[in-house]
Amino acid sequence: DAKTTQPNSMESNEEEPVHLPCNHSTISGTDYIHWYRQLPSQGPEYVIHGLTSNVNNRMASLAIAEDRKSSTLILHRATLRDAAVYYCILRDGASGTYKYIFGTGTRLKVLA
Amino acid sequence: NAGVMQNPRHLVRRRGQEARLRCSPMKGHSHVYWYRQLPEEGLKFMVYLQKENIIDESGMPKERFSAEFPKEGPSILRIQQVVRGDSAAYFCASSPGQGAFGEQYFGPGTRLTVT
User: Fold this and answer.
1) Where do runs of H (alpha helix) occur along A1-112?
2) Tell me: the pLDDT tens digits for A35-45?
């Protein structure tokens, strides 16, 4: 079973920032937090991942709570192309596990 | 650099027929993963392979399903005697190595419809 909890859906206006929350209250010290997104009729696409510190890349930012029990994916300026299902996934770095356990994710709708 | 390629993109089979799904990983990637996605659900892990070896098939149904990744050529997911419940999108992903740190690169998927 997925070890994360996300809202089923969210809406955002185009050109505005979007904050996608994820709860992972049972996270272990060696779990990495990964985010993927799946555009309609496509395979999942890597967005970002982190362990403890906040992370930034060209696609998004990942803000991780100090206790690591929650995190937030931040899209700084949503565009219509960002409409997708966003998955927050934990992966254990200690065991070297490779399989992703996907939940149902958050469906993001971007309004023009 | 071409991404992960899957073919066919759409496959229609009648009940009882066989389905063969192909996956060519990204250049330089020797690790392949197969996932299945039912409508309105998240992806479910099926199997993890390296060249000529099945590493983990814990997500594969016990019967009718098999996978291989030969020394030469694409990885194949084979479903024998398909049933309506096999209708789903099947995604292949690849990575250059195993581990929890790096990402997996997913293909566009094969959408299997069983009539």
Assistant:
1) none
2) 999 999 899 99
